[in-house]
Amino acid sequence: MLLNKNSLSAERERGCSFAETFENASAVVENGGAITSTPTVDFGMTTDGTDDVVTYPAVNSVKSISFWITLQTTTEDIMQLSSSHSIEASSGTLTATGLTSPTFYVNGVATATITTARSHVTVTTATAFNADAIQIGQDDSFGQFKIEDLKMWTNVLITKETLDYTNNDTFTYRNKAVIDLPMTMENHDPTNVRTLDVSGNGNHGTFEDTPTKLTTSKGYSFDGTNDDLSCGNVGTMKSAAFWIKPTTTSEDIADMDGGTHTIEVGSGTITATGWSSPAIYVDGVVSSTLVAGIWQHVVITTATGFAASAVKFGKETTYLDGSLMEAKLLPDELTPLQVADLYITERKKLNDI
User: Fold this and answer.
1) What distance in Å separates the CA atoms of residue 239 and residue 299, rounded to the nearest whole number?
2) 286-306 pLDDT per residue, tens
3) Looking at the predicted structure, is the pLDDT value of residue 272 above 90?
4) How far apart are the C-alpha atoms of 193 and 112, rounded to whole Å?
5) Is 9-170's fold the same as 174-347's?
6) Is 333 helix (H, G, I), strand (E, B) or coil?
7) What Gene3D superfamilies does the entry give (predicted)?
8) Tens digit of pLDDT for each residue in 71-92?
9) Which residue, 338, 301, 323, 347, is CA-closest to 183?
10) Partners of residue 310 on adjacent β-strands
11) DSSP code of 214?
12) What dotted CATH number matches 9-170?
């Protein structure tokens, strides 16, 4: 039984191991739930506080639980997770019995205070536990509330991820790029010696010398001698993303501002010189290892934005010997969930031309 089938691919990549949308009673049963009494189930489950409960099979190695909830009162038992783990509200304060040093988020803010208004709740712990006796709607007593979009995760969600879920903002990053160079044949503009930016900001990549347009995939081949794409001043950025197939494991890749903030790989390790405490991802997961001769997706993020005032792809101190495609710069620090989503989304189109 696949308990996370109601989640998205990126959520599963991030560690979502259980997802329940409470679409209807039949869907809950199909998802492994066993319903006791007659809760109202219609894209959410409303319990009566008397005898309504849904149980599920075990979910192991849980570190985060997230859900929307509308409490009838500020004191309600919400769910049992195991014989020694549960979540409840008492006089407007959430507790997570049995969880080690839990962190609570309500509507994306680190707090355990909750009201009877519809709220998004996330509870995290660094110490994984097995949720092997799940009862939604009952712990010591029955709770009265409406619960929606319940998920359990094997990783600790970060503050920004909880806030994004609250604001339905998880996937809007896709439309926020300050530069977006797909490097497809459609966007290849040799007449004007450039590849087109599709972000809407007009930050086209101008050929300096001429990297060779690939004809069996998106992207360009850079000769390591004098090829690069110059995009100029594109504004403030916090994240860079691109696909790269380096010829060797030591290559200069990109320069954001004339040498202060750069991206390179040396002996197979990606570095982001000048970036403040950068997080580096390869193929959707935290890693700084890059190998030669195959396409890999690289994302670099920082919480400290900087002005990308003189962007070049394919050149830093020296020139790139290899291929690039799908280069993006974004004004926000992408979360691990967003990085996974970007990788999965673009991987599906890897062979487009």
Assistant:
1) 7
2) 999 999 999 999 999 999 999
3) yes
4) 56
5) yes
6) coil
7) 2.60.120.200
8) 999 999 999 999 999 999 999 9
9) 323
10) 257
11) P
12) 2.60.120
pLDDT (0 to 100) of residue 1: 59
Q: In which band, very low, low, confident or very high, does the pLDDT at 350 lie, cut at 50, 70 and 90?
A: confident
Minimal CA–CA distance to 64: which of 146, 131, 136?
Answer: 131
Task: Say if residues 81 and 88 touch (Cβ distance below 8 Å).
Answer: no
- Within 13 Å, how many C-alpha atoms sit on residue 183's CB side? 29
Lookup: tokens for 116: 């009877």
CA distance 217 to 214: 6
Q: Region 207-236: what's the mean pLDDT? A: 95
Place of tokens 């929307």: 68
State both tokens at 83.
Answer: 């014989």
* Residue extents of the structural domains in the chain: 9-170, 174-347
- Over the chain, what is the mean pLDDT? 97
Cα-based distances in Å from 276 to 43, 179, 289, 333 = 42, 21, 19, 12
CATH class of 174-347: mainly beta
Q: Are 46 and 38 in contact (CB under 8 A)?
A: no
Contacts 24+ apart (CB under 8 A), 24-27: none
Give residue 96's pLDDT.
99
Task: Output the six-digit token pair for 338.
Answer: 């967003």
